[in-house]
Amino acid sequence: MYLQNIYTYPIKSLGGIRLDEAVVEERGLQYDRRWMLVDEKGRFMSQRKHPEMALLQVEIRNDGLFVFHKQKPDIEILIPFEPGTDKLIPVEIWDDRVEAQLVDPEVSRWFTDQLGMDCNLVFMPSAIQRKVDPAYAVNEETVSFADGMPYLLIGQASLDDLNTRLESPVPMNRFRPNLVIAGAQPYEEDDWREVVVGESVFRLVKPCARCVITTTDQEKGVSGKEPLKTLASYRTVDNKVLFGQNMVLIKGEKIRTGESVSFR
Predict the structure, then answer these.
(1) Residue 262: what are its φ and ψ, rounded to 5°?
(2) Which residue in 35, 93, 112, 192 has a CA-CA distance of 20 to 30 Å to 76?
(3) Angstrom distance (rounded) from CA 244 to CA 161
């Protein structure tokens, strides 16, 4: 088995980035979901309600995040890594309430124009501590603006099996994983306790319950019924449709595609 793909999503629910290597940190991959769009009440925004967010693609550059519209590449903006304000505002991610740093009013206006609704881009400074649910934490880990866990792993064979059941196969980007493993059996990751990638060790803590984001075409920004409908027919447990495994980092500094993977 080996690490086939690494993906990061610097701005929550916007287009993801495939990497050849990545720094691993307690709250997730470096830069992963450290930025987030919130509405006028400070609540997080996602493709669940706004599938058109998929059309905004992010790139990591030396001087910041470069964001552009997939269908209109001339619509673009560069967001420096360092926020332009020191202002902290309260934000909500599901049941969590934390403070976040307002990036820049001009940047927020750009996103407001693209999405057609008032919103603000916020950043999570290292001083902000959003704790992983104690029911799943191993060492009282913190997490980024991700839904709840720092890392998500999926086996390529699991997607391949799902695609044999669909009329139209779907790509891995529907599921927004961080790590994709090749060489395992379909759904083998369901039974792993820990996974070792090169010299990094991750603890698998809970299956990932899937939502309607999996039905959003990441290139068109529109939603349908699949693959969630088919997944629900054979991957439902306690009224939750499960696909992939959530993880926390036990130890490690960097991961690279092609590195050997083992489990225990």
Answers:
(1) -135, 165
(2) 93
(3) 13
Q: How many C-beta atoms lie closer than 10 Å to residue 83's C-beta?
A: 19
- Give me the amino acid identity at 81: F
Q: Contact 6/20 with Cβ under 8 angstroms?
A: yes
Neighbours of 53 (CB within 10 A): 24
Helix, strand, or coil here: 244?
Answer: strand
Instruction: Output the DSSP codes for 44-107.
Output: B--TTT-GGGGGEEEEEETTEEEEEESS-TT-EEEE-SS-S---EEEEEETTEEEEEEE--HHH
Block residue for tokens 């629900």 = 232
Residue at token pair 């505002």: 89
Nearest to 251 by CA among 188, 206, 198, 208: 198
The DSSP code for 142 is B
235 CB contacts (<8 Å, ≥6 apart)?
241, 242, 243
Percent of the chain that is helix, strand, coil (3-state, to 5): 15, 40, 45
Residue-wise pLDDT tens digits, 156-186: 999 999 999 999 999 999 999 999 999 999 9
Q: Is the dihedral of CA 16, 92, 214, 137 positive or negative?
A: positive
Q: In terms of residues, how long is the chain?
A: 264
Q: pLDDT tens digits for 136-155?
A: 999 999 999 999 999 999 99
Q: Where are the alpha helices (DSSP H) in 191-250?
A: 228-234
- How far apart CA 187 and CA 245 sit, in angstroms, is 10
> d(Cα 109, Cα 50) in Å, to the nearest integer?
17
